[in-house]
Amino acid sequence: GGFIGAEVASAAVGHGLAVTVLEAAAVPAERALGPVLGGLAGRLMSEAGVDLRTGTALTGFTGAGVALADG
Q: What is the rounded CA–CA span in Å between residue 68 and residue 30?
């Protein structure tokens, strides 16, 4: 989840949509922000209503949605 993804997710939640963000790293934008600020960004996203899933990756699509690396 980069900056644009976080902004889109926040806007969608603000319009009443359910949003899930997948992030392979331990915290969002970890490479750009580092673990501390990335962790803060993740907490803010979660508090805003975004279903943030870190440490996982998309492995494929199923008839009901998506398949994740961690199940």
A: 20
